[in-house]
Each structure stands twice: as structure tokens, then as C-alpha cells.
Design brief:
The protein is α/β, with parallel strands linked by helices and 276 residues long. It is 45% helix and 11% strand. The strands form two sheets. A five-stranded parallel sheet has the order 4-3-5-6-7. Helix 2 packs across helix 5 and helix 3 runs parallel beside helix 5. The longest helix is centred in the last third of the chain and has 28 residues. About 4% of the residues have low confidence.
């Protein structure tokens, strides 16, 4: 088996997702993962090391009870991908900003004690990383070329800002974790797709609203829809039985009779006017 074939996924998939594209900044902590610098100043990560680190992280995650794993995702793209990962793996997701004391203040209502913390952005989620380090919680972090790795037990070098990159990372982590846990015996049994990790799943309220809008649009577009709606309209409250049962034909007959009566009275009115 060649080196490329031994990767978790085809190298082209990694390249398409831009998982190896770093920033124009680098810190000493990430030097060991950087392959080269491009002409435009961007640093490029070593794909082999990215792949190896994702593989090992999947095994690490599988060694913990999913209920003891917390994924912190403060960015929109990371939250979308992490949400799908949590759904598949059973891990807990903490989207958005972490409130100080979440892992250290036992008097807080939202206090929790995870055994493993997964951070998608060690810089933006610094509060969670510091608290995990203080409490001795094992921490895995997605690190770009400009991220420091202090308090992290395991570093996954990657582009931790791109939508496609994050989707691919969490797809692979979910698949590797499922494999290591025995949920699947081969990659073919893993039915989720990378695309499912890119976009957030709709809530029940959003699904219901979309369904109602579609039904309303279909009703308006149906031939004779307005006429049918008019025919099925109920009489107003308080309307008499005679008014409710009247038809267009009876209304026309009444109007014609009224015109005849007015015509018959017209000569008398004219005589009175002349007499005056």
C-alpha cells in the first residue's frame, strides 16, 4: 500500500477542502507541523501530519464515554460541523462563548465536569482551555499556524477557520470514532456525508414553517384556487338564514323587480312635479 493510499481519505479531498492552508502568521509551537511557506506568504501544513493527528484523535475520543466529552465551538462554521459530530458520536456541544466558571465554579447552574475537552479554536476559546488545564481535563485542539498549544494534550494541525476544512475534519473524527467504538466495521457502513457537516440541520420549527409556506404557495398557484376559497367562505356571524341561503340568481331577480316598481311610479312623480 502506498503512502497516499494509507491516508484516511484521498489526498485530493484534503486539498479540495483546504485543510492544509494556514495563515500568514506562525508561532514556534506550530513549527513542527509546517511544511513550507507559499509565495503569497501563507504557511502550508504537512498533510501527512494532519492525517496522522486526526487518526489518533479519533482513537482518543473513542476511549472516553461520549457523555464525558464536551466540544466547544464558538464560530459559526465550527458549530455547524461540531453539531453533526455531536449528533453522531453522542458528545456534548457547547456552542458560542464559554462563560467563566463553566468548568471551575461548582455553584454555577451550568457547571459541568467533562473528562475530555475538544476546542475548535484555542485562541478564541481560551477561557475553556485555561479552565480545562486548571482542572486537569484532557484537551484536544484544532490549531492553525498562529495558535499556541499551551494546555493542549493533543494538537490537530489544520485550517480551523474554513467551512469545508472543518466539515472534513469532523466527518473524519466521527467516522474514526465510530470505527474504534465498534459501531461500524468498515468505512462503507458510515452513512453520513461530508456535506452534512457543512450546513446546520434545520430545527423542527424551521421545518414546520417551511412546510406551511410550501403548502400556502401551492394553494395560491392551483387553478381556480381563489374561486374555491370564495365559495367555501362561511357567512358572517349574525347573518340571517335568508341572507346565507341567497344565490346570485335571486339577487338579480330582486333587483329587476325593484326597477319595475320604480318605473311604474315614475309617471305619478312626474305629474306631481308638473302640478307644482
Amino acid at each position: 500500500m502506498s503512502e497516499k493510499e494509507s491516508m484516511l481519505i484521498r489526498q485530493e479531498k484534503y486539498l479540495e477542502a483546504g485543510i492544509h492552508i494556514g495563515t500568514k502568521l506562525k508561532v514556534v509551537d506550530m513549527n513542527r507541523f509546517i511544511y513550507r511557506a507559499r509565495n503569497d506568504g501563507l504557511f502550508v501544513l504537512d498533510l501527512r501530519k494532519v492525517d496522522e493527528r486526526i487518526r489518533m484523535a479519533g482513537k482518543m475520543l473513542a476511549s472516553f464515554d461520549p457523555k464525558d466529552i464536551i466540544v466547544v465551538a464558538s464560530r459559526t462554521y465550527s458549530s455547524n460541523a461540531a453539531s453533526k459530530f455531536a449528533q453522531i458520536s453522542g458528545a456534548r456541544l457547547l456552542p458560542g462563548r464559554i462563560v467563566p466558571g463553566t468548568f471551575t465554579n461548582v455553584h454555577r447552574d451550568d457547571f459541568t465536569e467533562p473528562k475530555l475537552l475538544f476546542t475548535c479554536d484555542p485562541k478564541g476559546e481560551r477561557q475553556a482551555v485555561l479552565e480545562a488545564g486548571k482542572m486537569g481535563i484532557c484537551t484536544i485542539g484544532l490549531c492553525d499556524t498562529d495558535n499556541y498549544t499551551s494546555y493542549l494534550d493533543w494538537v490537530i494541525p489544520c485550517n480551523n477557520k474554513g467551512r469545508r476544512s472543518l466539515a472534513l475534519i469532523f466527518y473524519l473524527l466521527a467516522r474514526e470514532m465510530s470505527m474504534a467504538c465498534g459501531k461500524i466495521s468498515s468505512y462503507d457502513e458510515f452513512k453520513a456525508t461530508i456535506e452534512e457537516f457543512e450546513t446546520p440541520e434545520k430545527t423542527e420549527a424551521e421545518i414546520a414553517a417551511a412546510k406551511a409556506a410550501a403548502q400556502a404557495a401551492a394553494g395560491a398557484a392551483a387553478p381556480g384556487g381563489n374561486a374555491q376559497a370564495a365559495e367555501t367562505t362561511q357567512p358572517a356571524a349574525g347573518a340571517s338564514a335568508e341572507e346565507a341561503s341567497s344565490t346570485p340568481e335571486t339577487a338579480k331577480e330582486a333587483a329587476a323587480q325593484e326597477q319595475k316598481e320604480e318605473a311604474a311610479q315614475e309617471p305619478q312623480k312626474e305629474e306631481k312635479r308638473r302640478g307644482h
